Amino acid sequence: MTKLLLLEDDPSLSKTLIKYLGKHGYSVDWAKTGEEALDLSYDNTYDLYLFDINVPLINGIDLLTELRNAEDFTPTIIISALIDIESVTKGFIAGADDYLKKPFDPEELLIRIKAKTSTLKKILKFRNFQIDLQKNILFHDEKQLFLGDVQKNILISLIKNYPNPVTKDELFLLHEKPSDLAVRVNINKLKKNLGIEIKNVRGVGYKII
Hints:
This protein is α/β, with parallel strands linked by helices. The protein contains eight helices and twelve strands. It has a five-stranded parallel β-sheet with strand order 2-1-3-4-5, sandwiched between helices. The protein has a four-stranded antiparallel β-sheet with strand order 6-7-8-9. Strand 6 and strand 7 (about 130) form a beta hairpin.
């Protein structure tokens, strides 16, 4: 199920959107403040962010800026009553992929969400990597990357879960003969061959840093 993070301090609007999007197959986590949204973004992996701007503690634009600086490139739609060109410009400069002005028709939001998440399911970009998720093909610096199935699937899992770790149990499922040694060997080969930093999160698994 496609997972969304909604940052909105209006309870009535939030409950309406959560119910409406839930009927269309979307799972929605709700944050009432920018700080709550920041914590949720660190603890979970989302397919799309829906951010209002004028919310308590950390406004939506500052939050998005902080996430982008932390290399979180989750597609983001800003939903705001601020319709002046300066606010819209700030939103896109911060890294927004779309900007929807309040009031809006929930059906229009649904159309925009489908557009962003359908693209996400086809192509996933991360730093100098690109993954064609339909064909399960990897590119590095715009050149196709040829890896064994195990290492390729490990790398895809690490990228999909960034900035969160992939658990050891999840990594075991990618091996024909799972073991701690097999995981370490494949992780080390990825680090050496691709020059990427992969950290062992003690008691959890591995994550790209």
